[in-house]
Amino acid sequence: MILVGDLYRAMPEARTTFLGRTPVDQTWTAAFDQLITLSTPKRPYGPDFAPYLQELTREVGGLIEKIQPDAIHAQYPGLALSLALARTAGSIPIIAIIHGPDVMAAERGPEERESLNEVAAASAAIVVPTPALADRVDRLTGRRVTDRLTVIPWGIPLDDAQVRDRPPLGTGPHSLVHAGRLDDNKSTITAIEALALTEQPHRLTVIGDGTLRENLERRAAELGLQKRVNFNPSLPRADLWRRLSAFDAFVFTTKGLEAFGLVLIEAQAHGLPVIHSDLPGVREILGNTGIPYTPGDSSSLAAALDEMGRDSRRYAALTAASLDNSRRYDITITARQLHELTLRIAS
Question: Are 105 and 77 a contacting pair, CB within 8 Å?
């Protein structure tokens, strides 16, 4: 929803009505001209899903008939709301905007895959942020919608990023930061176990919440890293951004699918070199502006951290490359490309 809020705020030439649930964070609602809260009680996949979808489709159908939009953006095609939009749009063109959770869910379960396929089939265009995600969507949809796939990279409001005003530290040990959900796919454990293997006593701050928080804290204690690993709860983006420039580098540890990884660009925009798991989508975003390591391999990550800690010239070069790369991902570019696509589809 942070991305969605940024995206439509950067698209002032379009009048946007948002259909969805009551927002948890009211700050992003300013992105939309109108926000309509759905009244149908949500019931996820399971025995109650079919009647829920029928009720939701009736509600959405009435709203679409009332609003009569020129085009529909179906964010998260794996959700019931996107299915309801696909079944009620009629001649109104749909642009499906696919995110990582859509693909992960569709690869895990047949119901989610069927939903994704139905929305994709009903869409005039399908937007994904990287070629790697486009390929996975293409395979999930049986190559039936290849000509509708369009890659539009995500972005962030670069003007709000503040580069640190102190000179970058050359050699290690470094103060590292990792931010994100604490779940199995994000694989924060890789960073913690890597610290036990490094030659230099790097320090790590973990910012985030999730089901694995206690396990990660326990593992850090088992490895004797209590003084080198610090756990902080999740932060609102503005607060996270204020803290980023205090660190020397960002550690990205996702081991499975990563649709885009906005946090990578957030870190680079604040002048932080990125040490990252070598995933297809991440390679496409970063190119050679980060230090890759084998996903899920703590020894490989430890070697990458020490390599950066020993080479002050490479560290300085990575800092400059990070800032240059982040400038490719301004939210205004994302908004312009999506708006141009919408105008073409609507006409």
Answer: no
